[in-house]
Batch of 2 targets.
Target 1
Amino acid sequence: MMASLSGGLATMGNGVPYAIAAKFAYPDRVAIALVGDGAMQMNGNAELVTIAKYWKRWSDPRLIIMVLNNQDLNQVTWEMRVMEGDPKYEASQDVPDFPYAEYAELIGLKGIKVSEPDALAGAWDRALSADRPVVLEVMTDPNIPPIPPHIKPEQAKAYMSALMSGDPDALGIVKASFKQFAREFVPKVRKH
């Protein structure tokens, strides 16, 4: 198997255990898990202890866990906005801050934290050349809407309704949406 994806089923917490299983099945290959901060707090942090226990048995020790850290249960937040027209409910959607990269270092793994987009490529290079498993913590903006190009009119209407209904992040979302739109449709100015 080359990849596994939970898709839109909202299955949380399977990325890190799947990556561990992949390493035991193919200890000579790199395994990569892409997980959100909610899933990482659900069980991923505990699974790092398992990785710390067994990684020295693998012929290729590289297992990379990229944690998308936006301190929000973001998939659910956006489903609420787009599917139901409901604003973000902070009491159930906010994820507590946790130092994922620092925690990895505490238990003998490598931790890399990325706060700026320009640093991501170099961080991946370091992670892929590491001599041990890596937690790659990437700080992301929860207000960038993951809107596909095939959004339905009723979804667009629900999305706008959520923003107009007192969503606490409405202004940030509008700004991020505008930037995203501008990047896609406004030609880049080249410096000569």
Target 2
Amino acid sequence: MTYYTPAPRNPKLPPVRINLLSDTQTRPTRGMREAIARADVGDEQIGDDPTVNLLCERVADLLGKEAAVFMPSGTM
């Protein structure tokens, strides 16, 4: 499998083991598909996704805040 990185790799570093370039390059395993099928889902845009809500609650607790919002990048 070919791994694409934004910069040339330093040959002294260990090889890339996880490809995070895109979620469309890999296929989920059977276990991943089963977990997806069992997952509670909702629309995070309207506060209806239980997994996102739990993540925000846990981060707020960790930081000692009453609420939190999760942004996967610094520009969102």
